[in-house]
């Protein structure tokens, strides 16, 4: 396959960036999108040009590091992570525009890499359960209703990639936040800190500069883990309950 790539190049956080055009004529349809970028970087290295900086780690769809805007869509045209996207999704001769996540709380560090540490700071405000674990308890010591266990597991699949923020016209991280609140709020072990968790995490979300949710739904459409929109209802429900409780 032959593809034309328009890639955002930006040398650091403060410099202005712009799209650069590259041609690749030896792309296999079986390559992943990131392997295609690896091929481009090998070519740039050979030609003495600086390779394109982009993030990846697991390349298996589980770490959340690899977010890119591809032709204006977070993670590209399929419901998957960028690392699980394959070049067979595109056509021979296509022009593909590749940009970093666009959101004020995710500043561009270099080229396609953004700083997503705002998510880490939100998690630090309550995305955990603080109990002494001690020895492993018997599995049946704390019964969990099946529907709640399933719901907690389903939303725990959020990998913190940030596609929901990049896709949202408001730059809101409500889907990410709702996934974390729902995951811990469904489980008996998460009840002790349920009120403080939601109040502190929402405060950090707003402090980082993420926008509010206006029910547009672009987040859930872009989410590679198909986190449903109703986690945001759960987030709002828990926040109002905490405020009623005097937090
Ligand atoms: S909710 Fe979905 S899109 Fe948002 S960070 Fe989690 S996995 Fe990524
Ligand atoms: S590199 Fe880990 S999810 Fe894509």
TrEMBL record:
Belongs to the succinate dehydrogenase/fumarate reductase iron-sulfur protein family. SUPFAM superfamilies: 2Fe-2S ferredoxin-like, alpha-helical ferredoxin. Residues 149-178 form the 4Fe-4S ferredoxin-type domain. Keywords: 2Fe-2S, 3Fe-4S, 4Fe-4S, Iron, Iron-sulfur, Metal-binding, Oxidoreductase, Tricarboxylic acid cycle. This is succinate dehydrogenase. InterPro entries: 2Fe-2S_ferredoxin-like_sf, 2Fe2S_fd_BS, 4Fe4S_Fe-S-bd, 4Fe4S_Fe_S_CS, Beta-grasp_dom_sf, Helical_ferredxn, SDH/FRD_Iron-Sulfur, Succ_DH/fum_Rdtase_Fe-S. Its EC number is 1.3.5.1. It comes from the Bacteria. The lineage of its organism: Bacteria, Bacillati, Actinomycetota, Actinomycetes, Propionibacteriales. Its cofactor is [3Fe-4S] cluster; [4Fe-4S] cluster; [2Fe-2S] cluster. It holds the Pfam family Fer2_3. The keyword Iron applies. The keyword Iron applies.
């Amino acid at each position: 396959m032959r593809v034309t790539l328009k890639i955002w190049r930006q040398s650091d956080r403060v410099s202005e960036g712009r799209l650069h055009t590259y041609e690749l004529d030896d792309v296999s349809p079986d390559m992943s999108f990131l392997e295609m970028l690896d091929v481009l970087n090998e070519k740039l290295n050979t030609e003495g040009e600086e390779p394109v900086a982009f993030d990846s780690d697991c390349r298996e769809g589980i770490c959340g590091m690899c977010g890119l805007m591809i032709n204006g869509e977070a993670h590209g045209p399929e419901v998957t992570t960028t690392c699980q996207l394959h070049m067979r999704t595109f056509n021979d001769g296509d022009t593909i525009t590749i940009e970093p996540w666009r959101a004020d709380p995710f500043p561009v560090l270099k080229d396609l890499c953004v700083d997503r540490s705002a998510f880490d700071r939100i998690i630090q405000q309550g995305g955990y359960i603080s109990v002494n674990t001690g020895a492993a308890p018997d599995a049946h010591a704390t019964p969990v209703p099946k529907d709640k266990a399933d719901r907690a597991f389903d939303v725990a699949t959020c990998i913190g990639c940030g596609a929901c923020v990049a896709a949202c016209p408001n730059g809101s991280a409500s889907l990410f936040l709702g996934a974390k609140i729902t995951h811990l709020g469904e489980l008996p072990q998460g009840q002790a800190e349920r009120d403080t968790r939601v109040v502190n995490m929402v405060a950090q979300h707003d402090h980082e500069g993420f926008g509010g949710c206006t029910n547009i739904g672009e987040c859930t459409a872009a989410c590679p883990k198909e986190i449903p929109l109703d986690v945001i209802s759960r987030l709002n429900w828990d926040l109002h309950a905490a405020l009623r409780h005097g937090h």
